Amino acid sequence: MHAWNGFNTGRWTNDTDVRDFIQKNHSPYEGDSLFLAPASEKTNRLWLQCQDLLKEERKRGGVLAVDVKKPLQINSHPPGYIDRDSEKIVGLQTDAPLMRGINIYGGLRTTMKACKAYDYQISQDLIDFFAQHRPTHNDGVFAVYTPAMRLARKVGIITGLPDSYGRGRIIGDSRRIALYGINFLVEHKKKDLEQLTEEMTPATIQHREEIFKQIEALQATCEMAKSYGCDISRPASNAYEAVQWLYFGYLAAVKEQNGAAMSLGRVSTFLDIYLERDIEQGLLDEAGAQELIDQLVIKLRLVRHLRTPEYNELFAGDPNWVTESIGGMASDGRTLVSKTSFRFLNTLNTLGPSPEPNMTILWSHRLPRPFLAFCAHLSMATCALQYENDDLMREYYGDDYAIACCVSAMRSGKETQLFGARCNLAKLLLYAINGGRDEMSGEQVGVEMMVYQDEFLEYNEVMRRLEIQMKWLSELYVNTMNVIHFMHDRYAYESLQMALHDSQLHYYMAFGIAGLSVTADSLSAIKYGRVKPIKDASGLITSYETRGDFPFFGNDDDRVDQIAVELIKMFKTNLQKHQAYRQAQHTLSILTITSNVMYGKHTGDTPDGRKCGEALAPGANPLHGREKLGAIAGLNSLAKLPYSYARDGISLTFSIVPESLGKSDSERVDNLLSLLEGYFTQDAHHMNVNVLDPATLIKAMEQPEKYADLTIRVSGYAVHFTRLSRELQEEIIARTFYRKL
Amino acid sequence: MVGRIHSIDTFSTLDGPGIRTVIFMQGCGLRCKYCQNPDTWATRNDKTQELSILQLMQIIKRGIPYYGKQGGVTFSGGEPLLQADFISSVLQQCKHLNIHTAIDSSLYIDSSRLMKAIPFTDLVLADIKSIDQEVSLKLTGKSNQLNRDNLQILNDNHVKVWIRYVVLPGWTDRPTDIRDMAVFLRSLANVEKIELLSYHTLGKHKWNMLGLSYELEGIKPPSPEYLKELAEHIASLSGKLATF
Q1: What pTM, to 2 d.p., does this model score?
Q2: What is the ipTM for the molecules in this complex?
Q3: In which domain, by residue range, is B22 found?
Q4: Fewest beta carbons within 10 Å, which of A148, A539, A555, B120?
């Protein structure tokens, strides 16, 4: 076939197997960044116009415009352009840049609320239609939720559940469109459908319907591309087409779905094969190659969804988690770093810093040194990168996995996850002490027991009680998730994204914990200090007198670090006792996004001395200011948390002032890389790296427009700092920034 | 044997090469007017931790994955060589584990103490307070004779040295002193570089907290341009790398 001229053939030639294509054709690159080209004139022209639009968006309170007339669908809008002459890669979600569409399938009320927040209103016709004729995901869930589920949600022991918005964290493997074209994919899906003809169990019927929808979505995507003048029914035949075809796949996904995390996957080294082929044939030069990647990234930076204020509190800064996983090693020991890995990262230079796409470096101790040094330089210059341990994840996911959202790994096109936000572990501990009553509202939520009676809290007794409450919560949490995902599949199925997966899929069901460090510290206080519970007038324990010298998580002290380990194991073990929808495999994350602030607000005093309303730590971080022995002791505590029990990711946000990394630029690069190496060779999972002085953040609070591009990693993603609420900004400044003691 | 320790920082990049665990030892015989850690002066106070060699080694070993080829351990203070027996034992164990070792010392210390540590020390970060006797006496309370003797000993024993020199305007930047120091350093083959440290007032609040009176009120930290000029001058006279 003409499109595949010059490629080495293999299993990929007949079956959908992108990994095999990469393995047979990629060019590992071990050199430095000197080959890179600057942005082209066209790119500069286009990006300038986009920056004006972004400025205008900021001016209007974060939303430039909303199209409330037509609910967003793959083909709901005619083609949209920014500046046709300057655009190499085309395609917008609606017919105008940054104009947000509405996606009602997640929830009608949510959509109305989101519109209202920005002074828009959906037409009465649409409201009536959905209210009368088309239940949404949200309707489905609330029809089935039990009183216990509603209560758990209301008091905030479990929150952020995707029960009124798209669940996300599904990565459609858009590379398949570039490599095979839509026709090939449709043919294969049709074959899969033919296989599902025997016993018509509910599962088979559901599966058949889903594949049917997938085929429709593929065809719709083909139509959408045609409206832009592109024929993606056939494979891409050159680098431009490969980038454009792949982007159409992603674009169709973000039109069809408003999932919290709409991640891109692992595309750069795949695209590199096309770029290098064109370069070799003299059809493209380095400037042209960079231009294609720049223009793709511009489009990724413009992805928008309409959200409610409540949503923004949990997931602050308008993130989409357009996560692109870069680097890593192949199973045979060759690096998967390519020149296009550099080109992708180089967009932080050509276009300037930006939180999106969420660039994730798959770290291995065998990554080429010049690549690592390039990443370290960018981290220092932009605070835009996160690092995840490829040596650890490759064991579980092979060498063609990608990260969804922040830290969720999955084999590309072969695995997906059912996202489940997180529960508040600190609150659960308080339930253990208060016999299942909520310490804020006094309501009976958990398992009813006597409120703790003795004068001092005793470790074994508190743990016994915690285990009882944890059993209760685990069952409730799994059941709630089962309801949500059943209804999501039913009313807001991700047809296109799932079409870009194998039909026989492995599912993960991803649970989460917030407040790990506070809970471990509280138990440490109980075990090694002396904690006296104080009751209020109603007999509820609402505060504590904490004395003694007890260790805090984050100081490499096994006495408390092992408590944190135990909590993770305990919770994971309890969760997997309950069957998950679609026979999904239970996984667990220690990740908060920005909900640590909101969770803290709704959590009473804790035995470690934290006061009611104060923020929890982000992700698996030690609580602000509790690391007394410096960065390495902190990292060592984190590295003890077992990934095998928390395979949905263990997130650490690491912030350091530049001066503390060393004197010269080259010393800082070396030291940052040694830091990553020391952390990851101990099987730690994830690190967000911020190299900046909090003084800069304070200045940015004072003069936001001057610091509009200031990017900082918060918890598995990056944000424009100035777009956070004041409260969140203050929480970030209060976090530990390592500096010379 | 236990060490009296003021504090430990498991991550420093400014106290020797690479990533280092720095152990700040409690106790110092000098009373430098610009000292940023006057809380390390007393032999012991209520915050002093006492750690055994084994306990300290456990902390040091936890840094091994991060040290890489360059990093390691630095004893600072206070004056670490006041506890020469303790730190020498720890340094010896570090060398068994192939960990790079450094001492950050004023060298205003009895030479016999220095000799104990020398066999296990890869690098000494050595202060020169002032090359001038009088200035040294005024600035630190002590004559600088031991400092000069010890620098010579380190040179004779081929121990690598980085000189640290605090630039305190009006005190340590007299042209004749700068020249004399540079000439002296030219004669020491083991000195690899001279780090000029800018005087700063970040430790001032500790003086107030301890009820001490801070005598350098009103002295402004030197400008980067001035430091650069001094560094270039010292480099040209000493033939050594001078950084700031």
Answers
A1: 0.96
A2: 0.92
A3: 2-243
A4: A539
